[in-house]
Known about the structure:
The complex is a heterodimer of chains A (309) and B (308).
Chain A: H1 6-10, H2 23-53, H3 55-60, H4 62-67, H5 81-112, H6 117-130, H7 134-148, H8 150-153, H9 158-182, H10 186-194, H11 199-228, H12 231-235, H13 261-270, H14 274-305
Helix pairs in contact in A: 2-14, 5-9, 5-11, 5-13, 6-9, 7-9, 9-11, 10-11, 11-14, 13-14
Chain B: H1 8-11, H2 15-56, E1 66-68, E2 73-74, H3 76-108, H4 111-124, H5 129-148, H6 157-181, H7 185-193, H8 198-209, H9 211-227, H10 230-235, E3 242-243, H11 255-263, H12 274-307
Antiparallel strand pairs in B: 1-2, 1-3
Helix pairs in contact in B: 2-12, 3-6, 3-9, 4-6, 5-6, 6-9, 7-8, 9-12, 11-12
Amino acid sequence: MLLTSPAGIATSHALRRRPGADVGGAVFKWLLIGATVFATGFLAVLLAVMIVDGWAVLSGNLWYFLTHGFSQRSAAEAGVWQGIIGSLQVALVTGVFAVPIGVATAIYLVEYAQNSRFARIVELNIRNLAGVPSIVYGLLGLVIFVKALEDFSKGATVIAGGMTLAALVLPIIVITSVEALKAVPDSLREAAYGVGATKWEVLSRQVLPAALSTILTGTVLALARALGEAAPLILVGAATGFLSFGDANVLETFTGPYTALPVLIFNFARLPGADWGVNAAAASVVILVLVLAVNGLAIYLRNRFEKQW
Amino acid sequence: MARDQLTAADLQTSLMRRVRSHTVRWLFMTAATVTVLVSALIIWTVASGAWTFISQVELTKLTDIGWFPRRGLFDLTTLLVNSVQISVIAMAVAVPSGFGAAIYLSEYAHPKVRRVMKPTLELLASVPSVVLGVFAISFITPSILTNFFSEINFFNKLAAGIAVGLLVIPLIASISEDALRAVPGALREASAGLGARRVTTSIRVVLPAAMSGLMAATIVGFSRAIGETMVVTIASGGGDTSLFNLSLFESGGTLTSAMAALGLGTDQVAGNNLAFQSLYFLGALLFAMTLVLNMAGDVIVRRLQNRY
């Protein structure tokens, strides 16, 4: 049976390498596998280290930790509640500003501007914006959103922070939306034009619904990025220390002092003493779970519902 | 009422539909203009702030013993050298690992493995940088580096560099993998047809063909490392004040961590003194450096796209 198999014929003795001759190839392959394991495996190490370091908080009083605010008195009394609320509020403001502008820009680039000079300027500009370090966006936020637009943002508030992060994620939303729109085949547009639809009708009834799931995924990934950013928020005045909401209602918290989860982690990390380190690790686990869950869901949905045209 | 010929007006749609279609066009164009406005405002912000600083500071203070902004000493060399040192360490970690993962995924891995690993890399790219900063001071320095270097400082550039490296691995791996996969299969088939082993094909055929893409990945990764803030602020220390030193085992402030340290005062300190203005100058420097690096990377990637 062995003799009759095609494989047996093809690898006749003369053509086969001597056993052991390809040591170099095997070594190379295992080096590559090692690099891949290192590149992806450190996430597991990261999570494990944070869980072990934060175990005192995670196992004992996780609920207290999640539902109480920052305390200056002792690490054991400090929680991340205000950070979670602040992060969600900032992400909401970010989405309100970045998503309409980002998606509209993508629509303009793909559907309206056929390689015009203006479109090429916008494209180049988007690519460059995507590479600007996040802390530079903090300067933009400080000068424009906190100071110049103070009447609107009321100074260093959730609104100013959210607008700053909106500028930061805008290029990501544009780039992913452009890709989503480009993936919609032209035959769909031509068919709609063929039955007499106007440009806006083609877009709103055919192209956008077809690209919606991919655009949504890109948006969620961008907002998850905003959720993890600390550097620009430090510049636009997210509180790093104690803060009190007082008896402010939900709307008032948008125009009062605020903090965000990554900013709190930074603050825990720079306070001296091992017990603050435990808090930093526990809060890191919280943000990792949050960000990875949101991202994982978005990536899963995209791979699941990605249309093959 | 029957007419015997159609005019162009008969073929036009109703006025409402045309007006709506044109109005949304203007809305979309306005949005695109806003993105350009964001760039313009960034440039105006950093440039005008930097000008205020540079026109008031004594230029001799820009080269001194170190970075002590509250005492009026603004030695840029200290920050630049620390930034470059940390970014080079980051590259030493991220380039071998990122390239290796990219070659494995593009040349060796089973399609099923690829389908799992590519999203995993994306997931890794979303790890918040503060977490890696905490990782550096709670694990990399105390559990690893102290075993090898007994005299290492708690805050040190080496751990910061390694953590930044871990942060940019997914970016480098992802750009490199795209570059490797852009190499046409015919090259691999021709090489295999001549009897080359897979390792020979990978190293002698695919890698040279994708070289410019790999270079672009390195440049963009370096730019990301230079601009990384939170890891460095937490793990390397020295953002507030920093004496010039070359040792990787010592703490040292970078462009970004000095900015973060200056910015931490913004909610309390009235910011009109020269120390605060230096924030904008550092921002302008950082912006210019990363812009040049990113544009270089972009040009290289584009050239690669046109080749095949």
